[in-house]
Amino acid sequence: MDKPMDTPNGRALFDACKFLVRKGVWTAGLAAYADAVRAGAVPDAAARVYRAIAQIRVGENGAAAIEALDASLIRAADARIDVKRLVVSPLIRDGALHDAAAVLGALVNAWPELAEERRMLASVLGRLQRWDEAVRHADAAARIEPDAPAARAACIQLRLQAGRVAEAAELARASIDMAVAHAAHAHAWLTALTRAGHTEVAARLASRLDAASMPNDRAAAAVVQALASDNRIGLAISAGEAALRAGLDGTALRSQLGQAYLASGVSDGGHLRALEQLARGVALAPNDMRLMTLYGETLLRAGRYEDAVTHLQSACERCPDLAHTRTLLARALRHCGRHAESADHMLTLASQRPDDERVQRLAIAALSQAGRKDQASELYRKRLDARDRLLPSSFALAMAQVDMRLDEVSIPKERLDWAWSLRREADPATREAWERAARWGHLVDHLLLEWLECRDHLIEEAMTLLDDLDETERRFAPLLAGGKGVVVATAHVGPMYAGLMVLELLGIPSRWVASMPGVATAHYASALISTADQTEAQVARQCFRALQSGFAVCIAVDGAPNPAAPRVPFAGQEITYSSFAARAAHRLGSPSVFYAPRWRNGKIVQTLEMLPAAEPGEDVERYALRWQEAYLGHLREHLAGAPEDLRLSGGLWRHVRPVDPSAHATRAACDRNLSCIN
Question: Distance between CA atoms of 36 and 200, rounded to whole angstroms?
Fold first, then answer.
């Protein structure tokens, strides 16, 4: 310990130093300290602490002064409050986090039994990304105050920031009752559970909280996100709107509420409400690139192409490496008729992502539509060669390998769930066996496309899958005899690419509306009407010309290149639906059929069902509705059949959403006791 000061004058000068430093008069405080020493006084712990504080604040030997503030000196001076107020807080405010951490470390060592300094130190260490130390001190603070929700929230939050998401979620699960009792801190629990994929637990917690009573918009946004992540879209929207009415406005809440509205579908105006929320969010945070991209994508899907370009272009300029954003921008530019710009963006992406087949196809289409046919053809040839090298030597060998690839197929769970719910009740298959059959059908149809494009010279090998076509030929003959062509309404179900081979073998003059690029070189390409590199008006004109020439025109009614294509309710979902086929049949008086290949005993057979003909004097709108009802009825019947006939990609599958349990259950059912999930 220091010896007592020698003179009353010296003691007074040290007291003056302490007084002046507490008042923030640093230089005068240092002068008083120096005068005391010159008077022969020996500084005690308090005098040395306040001198160090003044030195730190004026930048005089700051590093040495910080080092001098060790635990024993601060404790002896009982200067905890002043060191925090006069040193730690200013250092943090000025961004001198390493120095702040050093001083806080001394405070923690001086008073290890206190939690507050540990929490502060954990926070500063987190900002320095010294995660292990930060977590260790946060955990120690929580042990000191086990009933403090802020301390437990800090433990969870720091683990999230450190990327230790699983640990954060387990900690959240173990203390979930604390989140229910202290909703002001529940944001950390909700975020950890949601990020870790414990969506049901997060949603049940969120359903116990009042979003309107949360402390800020970010906390309310976490409630909305947790509910929406478990597909409780109705409850998520209700919670978000309640929070807005309570005045909790902010970017995070607007973003999550907008996404919830997007998930609710378009038939009840969900996309329009999403646009309102996202527009407000962008206005509040114009530099949030993720939100700006989401807003641009929603504008694109709403058909507001020029507005979409404005926001997506801004996002790309600020963050040029955002591949998804650039793809959306290229699509928006295309629908604005700015084909050259669209092609440039897609070519940039194609060079950045040479193995992304979807990007390559989009680039080929954009180049072709921009009139850069040679570039499109060269890129198409390169992709074709690359894909060809991956195919087995024979179609039989490729088919034999399908079973070995079933576990590789990634199909969204919501599609499988929906399709499972549509099957006939008498189907005895287990879910596992049913899913394997569905995956098999998915793989085989995509194999047929690969073979058609890459092995056109060996197409006869794939044709061995086709069953006897006599019945199909007999059904088509009278339809074609009238000379008005035939509208063949298809869907993205079954081995749909087999249809090209069927009409080829039967010698039926046909055209297929498809998204394959117009520069395709296979034999069947001459029968394509490509939506990939033509406008909707160009596609429509080609379809009418083909029908007027007596051709069978095959149109996948459930598919559309337009991102703003209309949707209709169907079997509990919304699917893309184009009325063009029905309107074409009405305008030209052409017969129309529902057509879908399917599997039977290892062979592909054809489903061919007549669709309504227009009655004399029947209005086109009334006819289109009758036609739609019949088409959807045949489609529903097909989906109830064998799982290998589903296909599960493209068209009607694209917008399948998970079932919203909040639409079928009461709030009370959603608010079950959380004890059952821990």
Answer: 68
Question: Residue 308: its pLDDT value, please?
Answer: 96
What tokens appear for 626 in the block?
């009758």
Neighbours of 283 (CB within 10 A): 10
Q: What is the spatial distance between Cα 189 and Cα 124, in angstroms, rounded to a whole number?
A: 21
* pLDDT < 70: residue spans in the chain: 1-7, 267-268, 522, 662-678
Supply 581's token pair: 């086929």
Q: Write out 419-457 in H/E/C secondary structure.
A: HHHHCCCCCCCCHHHHHHHHHHHHHHHHHHHHHHHHCHH
The range of the structural domain enclosing residue 604 comes to: 453-659
Number of domains in the chain: 1
Tell me the per-residue pLDDT of 498-542, one tens digit each, with 9 for 90 and over. 988 898 888 899 999 988 877 777 677 788 888 888 888 899 999
Longest dimension (CA), the chain: 124
643 located within any domain = yes
- For residue 671, what is the DSSP state? T
pLDDT tens-digit series, residues 355-391: 888 899 899 999 998 999 899 999 999 988 999 999 9
Q: What is the DSSP letter of 2?
A: P
The pLDDT score that the predictor gives to residue 528 is: 87
Which of these, 215, 219, 190, lies nearest to 203 by C-alpha position? Answer: 190
- In angstroms, rounded to a whole number, what is the distance separating the alpha carbons of residues 38 and 19? 19
Buried b or exposed e, range 622-642, using 16+ CB within 10 angstroms: ebbebbbebbbebbeebbebb
Q: Beta strands of 7-159 (E only): which ranges?
A: none
Say if 76 falls within a structural domain: no
Orientation angle between helical segments 149-161 and 131-144, nearest 10 degrees: 170
Residue 320 lies inside a defined structural domain of this protein: no
> Strand, helix or coil at 552?
strand
pTM of the entire predicted model: 0.83
Is residue 324 one of the residues assigned to a domain?
no
